[in-house]
Amino acid sequence: MPELVELHHAWRARGVRVEAVSIDLALPVQVTTAEELGAFVERRALALPVVAFRGDFDVFTDQRKLPAGPPFTLFLDRAGAEVGRIEGAATQKEFEAALAKALAK
């Protein structure tokens, strides 16, 4: 997550929006309510936008042809079309390279 926070701060001046997407409400384990998710984000002092996915996670992963579970990173254009992805964990350099490649499309 620290890598995404760094991306958020480094690229927002260039018009790139980095968001963390929580699947906790779709697949509840430790966090089961929006209030609990908000408290988690606050405790962790996450310095980037966090949105909650509430839909059917299996349908979402099937539609996007994603691995069975996180972590994964999707790069979307303004219309929501996928222009890049990283499946699994990534380093700051890998995120930067994938973002630059996505922006070049």
What structural keywords apply?
two-stranded parallel ribbon, Glutaredoxin, alpha+beta, 105 residues, two-stranded antiparallel sheet, 4 strands, globular, single chain
Describe what this molecule looks like in 3D.
- There is one protein chain.
- The protein has a single domain (2-104), classed as Glutaredoxin.
- The model has no long low-confidence stretch (mean pLDDT 88).
- With 105 residues, it is of the alpha+beta class.
- The chain contains four helices and four strands, in the order αβαβαββα.
- Strands 1-2 form a two-stranded parallel ribbon.
- The longest helix is centred in the last third of the chain and has 13 residues, at 92-104.
